[in-house]
């Protein structure tokens, strides 16, 4: 069995990446990102979803991996909040919020900051 196929190996690699990213983001100098394409989109701390600019999409090899239109973080918050409001139960809302956090932590925390009183009991 290869190392990549071992159970739990992927989670351990993700934990290591997250620790490295946390160390890197505490500096005041520009952040060098060695991720591109699908691997960049798999990193919740770096994934901006549809907020990647056209230039960033070229630089990080994201052409064809994201919707064509570019949204600001505020537009993303408005969109995901309207989807959140369509969830039927508190459990559905919780699952929806967790899926956002698993994919785009910046969006998750901005959404939470905008609607904290409403969402705090859900999370």
UniProtKB/TrEMBL annotation:
Spans through the membrane: none
GO biological process, one term: malate metabolic process
Compositional bias annotation for Basic residues: 7-21
Name of the protein this chain belongs to: Malic enzyme N-terminal domain-containing protein
GO MF term (any one): malic enzyme activity
InterPro entries: Aminoacid_DH-like_N_sf
Organism name: Pseudomonas syringae pv. tagetis
Residue numbers spanned by region Disordered: 1-21
GO CC terms in record: cytosol
Secretion signal span: none
């Amino acid at each position: 069995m290869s190392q990549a196929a071992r159970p739990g190996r992927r989670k351990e690699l993700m934990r290591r990446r997250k620790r490295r990213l946390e160390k890197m983001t505490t500096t005041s100098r520009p952040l060098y990102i060695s991720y591109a394409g699908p691997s960049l989109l798999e990193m919740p701390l770096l994934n901006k979803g549809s907020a990647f600019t056209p230039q960033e999409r070229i630089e990080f090899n994201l052409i064809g991996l994201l919707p064509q239109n570019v949204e600001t973080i505020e537009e993303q918050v408005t969109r995901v909040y309207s989807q959140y409001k369509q969830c039927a139960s508190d459990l559905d809302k919780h699952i929806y919020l967790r899926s956002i956090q698993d994919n785009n932590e910046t969006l998750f925390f901005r959404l939470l900051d905008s609607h904290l009183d409403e969402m705090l009991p859900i999370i």
